[in-house]
Design goal:
The protein has 123 residues and is of the alpha+beta class. The protein has one domain: Nuclear Transport Factor 2, Chain: A (Roll). It is 19% helix and 48% strand. The chain has a six-stranded mixed sheet with strand order 2-1-6-5-4-3, with helices on one face. Strand 4 and strand 5 form a beta hairpin. The termini are far apart.
Amino acid sequence: MDPAALLTRLVEIIDAHDWEALPGVLHPDFTCRLVHTGEVFDRDGWVRFNADYPGFERMNAEDLVADGEHGVLRARVTGRGDAGEELEFAVASFATVRDGLLAELVEVWADVDTQPPAGSRPS
């Protein structure tokens, strides 16, 4: 598969909570690095991380760009916190494809509700 098809399929699998299908789009040497925490996962670890993530509900693709062996996905992820409150995140996923599978993801996550620092908004 090409990067656009793989990233589209990735979102479908994660949104459906189809954890058994997730390894099928990941290269055996897959790695995922979370920029915001510095964590790095291998294929099995990343599948487990997603399957066990507390409160996760939905993932929706908002933008996708692909060229050659690389793709970039911008998505919105929603879930529930410990007190049942709705949580919303934005994620940018930078993908590299090898042998028709996702070989590398670098993800950048942000809280959607985060307020900019005081004085940082233009007048």
